[in-house]
Amino acid sequence: MANSSGATLAVEDLRTHFHTRAGVLKAVDGVSFSVGKGRILGLVGESGSGKSVTGFSIIGLVDPPGRIAGGRILFNGEDLAQASEARLRNLRGNRIAMIFQDPMMTLNPVLRIDTQMIEALQAHQKMDRTTALARARDALGQVGIPSPDERLKSYPHQFSGGMRQRVAIAIALLNRPDVIIADEPTTALDVTIQAQILFEAQKLCREVGTALIWITHDLSVVAGLADEICVMYAGRVVEQGLVGDVLDAPLHPYTHGLIGSVPSRNRRGQPLTQIPGMAPSPLSLPSGCSFRTRCPRADAACEVPPPMTEFRPGRHARCVHPHLEAVAA
After folding, report:
1. How far apart are CA 154 and CA 273, in angstroms?
2. What does pTM read for this prediction?
3. How confident is the model at residue 1 (pLDDT cuts 50, 70, 90)?
4. How far apart are CA 230 and CA 290, in angstroms?
5. Does a structural domain hold residue 61?
6. Which domain covers residue 17, as residue numbers?
7. pLDDT digits (tens, 9 = 90+) for 85-111
8. Nearest to 222 by CA among 205, 242, 208, 204
9. What total number of domains does the chain contain?
10. What is the CATH number of the domain that holds 245?
């Protein structure tokens, strides 16, 4: 559960709904978590689980017909859910940064990279052009872009997709924000560059004290990067805890299925473990536990919505039939 005491960012019972002609789509439905200074939280789940909408809600980028229907987003004690657009603009890119899955959501196609990076610095800090240019050059080097002086004079279309993503990551790191929300930013990168980005992200958190929320479906990335993990399903957090505890001994059947479907955990020659069925539409969720129609442990008790329960110190799950035997072993 979210513990806002001393947290840089605490999300409490966040609900983000989209009002459509077909009904109310509850993309985020009662999500709570917190992340402290210098800590990394992995937000994990399959497509459509509400991970990205949670990130957009925190930074105030949910467009109509979506809106935050309830809950609090506490950034150093300030509730961003109630903040004005002017206040959010002041925080975005400065104290809170977001790295998008598509780098062109960050980059302007008609401006040179140096212009964009210098503007990102001077918009929030009193800094001369020479100092800003030096900071921009260092940031490009941090994310593994060769010949940064040359690359600063280039336009986005002169970069490959992976290089554009690295520039977008560099821009997010520029102002050394208090919170970075990273929405699957390394998906398009090769494993060598991905490892370098993950190393730089960890280094930034440890040295500067930045709190990082890393949104991904890749459990292997979270295993090597995060301190804590939240597993999302159908708009809700179904399990959370320290990353090693959750991945070694998952409580929730959904987490258990996710980990079982990772190829590296399979015995040679055995078929992959599969979670039967498909994730339900947020417009027509089953009553009670959203996962019960796909869960091998489901029974009549699962027809009542399960609360988030602490089964072990620091280990929470939204389930009435958790895998406690795995934790005990």
Report:
1. 46
2. 0.91
3. low
4. 16
5. yes
6. 7-36+49-87+226-317
7. 999 999 998 999 999 988 888 999 999
8. 242
9. 1
10. 3.40.50.300
